[in-house]
Amino acid sequence: MMLLTMPWTTTLLLALSTLDLAKVNGQRIDKPVLLSGFDSLDDALKNNLPITPHDKVELWTPGWILEDCKTLAENEKFSPHDIETYNVHYADCSAPWILCRHKDSPDPLWHFIELFGRIPVRARAHVKGMLMLPNPTSNYGYNANDYIAIFNQQRDGHHDWSSLTVMMHEVGHSLDRTAYRDSMLSLSDPWRQAVDQDSKIPDWYAGTNFQEDVAQNTVVAAYDLVVPGGLGNMNEDWGSIRHQYELIKKEQAEALTTNLLVPGGRCVYRVANSQAVQISDKKRRARRAGRGVTVLTGRPSTELGEGMPVIQSSGLSSEESCPRPEGV
């Protein structure tokens, strides 16, 4: 495995090792908001970020699960035996992404795979994968060590599918930590200056702290880059947050693989996967593959393949600041 050493990454990780995570999370940003929420951005993003074809989907051997998925599921009080793990081979990368889904997730597997593939590959390369979980009250997500957990509401016949803006927000956390030359961008002077220069922030959630503001502005920047007419086409007061999302656009254009938020290209590096771990036989249940899905046999591999450069995961989580419903 070839470890790709970006000039800013080693310094960042050393700094974070001695940094109080409360300081990373920071305090609220007290500014007016431009939008009441991001629902108005979701459809336009889906219409302008193309589907990435995939030529193979493989369901993992019964009794095996990705370590990241097992840890996240157990932290959320789900049984790992109810988690299905898949290798999804997208056409824009030689190595598959390993995606996990709870058997009761309201988001169908095909939609989950399609939506994740809409994330531009140069940004997608900065996340290890994604886990889909059901939730009785709300839709939300968080990014744990560059593996994303997405929760979708399922109750009384109400079934919510995943939102592309939520996924892009969580990807934005990984880009903040590992992609930009001003890493960690949310802790940098340029970001604070951009916030100071603007009269507003994107929405209420961006005001949580600088990390969430960067992640929300990642969604805004992607919208401005790929939707015809950009943000100015949907809100006449777009200039009130211009310094924030324009800085994201600048950073993503100057990253090691340029234009992270723009469709096209192929992956040239990836974040290393966690290991495949075996769970006990006692509750092992037979797996039935859906249409177009094959079932693996033996121990699944999590290797990215010979010659694929690997970037080191940040080790940070956005769980503390995610909008988790009360009592969950």
Question: What would you note in describing this structure?
Answer:
- It is globular, with a radius of gyration of 19 Å.
- 43% of the residues are buried.
- It is an alpha/beta fold and 328 residues long.
- The chain has helices at residues 9-17, 21-25, 39-48, 67-75, 109-118, 121-124, 164-178, 189-197, 210-226, 242-253; strands at 2-3, 54-59, 64-66, 83-90, 97-102, 129-135, 140-144, 147-155, 158-159, 270-271, 276-278, 293-295, 309-311.
- The longest helix is centred in the middle third of the chain and has 17 residues, at 210-226.
- The strands form three sheets. Strands 2, 4, 5, 6, 7, 8, 9 and 12 form an eight-stranded mixed beta sheet that branches.
- Residues 5-24 have low confidence and may be disordered.
- It is 30% helix and 18% strand.
- The protein contains ten helices and 13 strands.
- A hairpin with a 2-residue loop joins strand 8 (147-155) and strand 9 (158-159).
SSE blueprint:
Blueprint: E1 2-3, H1 9-17, H2 21-25, H3 39-48, E2 54-59, E3 64-66, H4 67-75, E4 83-90, E5 97-102, H5 109-118, H6 121-124, E6 129-135, E7 140-144, E8 147-155, E9 158-159, H7 164-178, H8 189-197, H9 210-226, H10 242-253, E10 270-271, E11 276-278, E12 293-295, E13 309-311
Parallel strand pairs: 1-13, 2-12, 5-6, 6-8, 10-13
Antiparallel strand pairs: 2-4, 3-11, 4-5, 7-8, 8-9
Helix pairs in contact: 3-9, 7-9, 8-10, 9-10
